[in-house]
Write a sequence for this structure.
């Protein structure tokens, strides 16, 4: 009998099976059970991480937000008073202003230097060694880097590298003073001229030796070429010249006579002397190693001798790097020194992925190196540059230890940043946990937009 007739007699429709599972839709319960089991396993793996994230991140954020609405003791609700203090308090305004400077200058400078280093090191044979040297500061902690640069920025040129270099360059183009703080005694034949110079009390005459004694110079700081002073001739000198001696009227160990050249006293070698008549300089001379000098009598006779102020000005000690005006740029310089290597390594990795044929094609078409760099290399590196820039911006908002270590106590208020103010407000001598919590919330709000931009950029890159 045909199968179709058999099925008709039995009342069953063709294609259907009769059995214990005949009423179920095939595969539905099995798929549901598998999906539920997968979600349970995923939740089991994620739960410890979520608990840790909640305990270390979510709860502190929530508690800080709540604490920012209470006073320092946490007993009284003060509303937005702690946030208003961020605007009205001078130190907090300075910290906010400095943070803006950090956000604008530090990431851009570090990224620009990293880009320059990454491009230039591709063209030198020892590029790998150079990259290693530039990246090495990343192996140093912020605290150690702060101590290093605290010494680099020392005011004394004998200790601070920055001022040693600066003073060396300055003294190459500007002659330094030979006798700072030198001065005459009241019994000396010299008196102050009012502008830092000294003049003789009486005009000089041909044939009369001139004595120019000074004190105030330590014998150990005398010029190396200084020799024992030669006493002026007692007899009248040449009528064609006015002669004299300039010397340090001080005998080491005591003794000696004022206004007289003693055997152990040294000549003021290199002292500049001018003859002035009617307000005009008519002659000049420089003291020899033994302090002796000579001026032409036809011009200097009857004139007053002047020791110009350039002989006595303080020696140039360099720049006050850690003073109120330069402390923030100085600390930013230390930060750039540390993080330029980080930017260079990331940009160098991106540069290695740039198609060389594009660069060569541009050169073949007549583009110079600057045009290749500006119109091809930089646009192709834009995603990498964005990553570096955003990473450094987030890092800059957390800068604390560099400022705390490098800036001296007298200039720390001028170098203050929000992270340092957070520490001072929360753990300082006049701690106010309400204000500290408000600063922490402000820092969070400043970081969130940067993170959102970074996440959006990463998503756009993933969709390409």
């Amino acid at each position: 009998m045909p199968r179709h007739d058999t099925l008709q007699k039995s009342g069953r429709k063709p294609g259907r099976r009769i059995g214990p599972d005949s009423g179920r839709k095939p595969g539905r319960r099995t798929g549901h059970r598998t999906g539920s089991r997968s979600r349970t396993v995923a939740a089991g793996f994620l739960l410890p991480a979520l608990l840790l994230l909640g305990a270390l991140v979510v709860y502190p954020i929530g508690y800080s937000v709540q604490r920012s609405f209470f006073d320092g003791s946490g007993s009284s609700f003060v509303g937005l008073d702690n946030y208003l203090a961020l605007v009205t308090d001078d130190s907090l305004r300075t910290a906010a202003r400095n943070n803006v400077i950090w956000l604008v200058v530090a990431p851009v400078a570090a990224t620009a230097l990293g880009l320059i280093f990454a491009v230039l090191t591709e063209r030198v044979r020892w590029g790998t060694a150079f990259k290693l040297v530039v990246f090495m500061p990343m192996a140093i902690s912020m605290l150690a880097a702060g101590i290093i640069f605290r010494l680099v920025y020392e005011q004394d040129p004998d200790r601070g590298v920055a001022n040693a270099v600066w003073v060396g360059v300055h003294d190459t183009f500007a002659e330094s003073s030979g006798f700072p703080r030198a001065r005459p005694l009241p019994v000396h034949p010299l008196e102050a001229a009012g502008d830092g110079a000294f003049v003789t009390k009486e005009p000089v005459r041909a044939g009369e030796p001139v004595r120019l004694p000074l004190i105030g110079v330590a014998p150990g700081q005398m010029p190396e070429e200084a020799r024992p002073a030669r006493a002026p001739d007692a007899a009248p000198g040449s009528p064609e010249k006015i002669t004299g001696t300039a010397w340090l009227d001080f005998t080491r160990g005591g003794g000696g006579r004022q206004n007289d050249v003693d055997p152990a006293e040294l000549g003021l070698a290199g002292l500049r002397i001018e003859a002035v008549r009617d307000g005009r300089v008519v002659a000049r001379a420089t003291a020899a190693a033994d302090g002796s000098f000579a001026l032409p009598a036809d011009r200097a006779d009857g004139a007053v001798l002047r020791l110009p102020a350039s002989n006595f000005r303080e020696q140039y000690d360099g720049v006050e790097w850690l003073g109120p005006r330069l402390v923030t740029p100085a600390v930013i310089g230390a930060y750039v020194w540390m993080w330029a290597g980080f930017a260079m390594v990331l940009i160098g990795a991106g540069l290695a992925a740039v198609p060389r044929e594009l660069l060569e094609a541009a050169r073949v078409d007549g583009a110079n190196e600057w045009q290749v760099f500006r119109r091809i290399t930089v646009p192709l590196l834009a995603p990498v540059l964005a990553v570096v820039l955003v990473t450094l911006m987030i890092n800059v908002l957390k800068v604390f230890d560099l400022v705390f270590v490098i800036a001296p106590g007298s200039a720390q208020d001028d170098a203050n940043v929000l992270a340092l103010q957070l520490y001072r407000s929360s753990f300082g001598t006049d701690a106010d946990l309400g204000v500290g919590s408000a600063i922490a919330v402000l820092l969070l709000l400043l970081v969130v937009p940067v993170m959102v931009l970074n996440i959006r950029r990463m998503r756009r890159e993933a969709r390409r």
In short: Residues 6-11, 15-23 have pLDDT under 50 and may be disordered. Strands lie at 190-192, 198-200, 210-214, 241-248, 272-277, 280-286, 292-296, 304-307. Residues 153 and 458 are 40 Å apart (CA to CA).
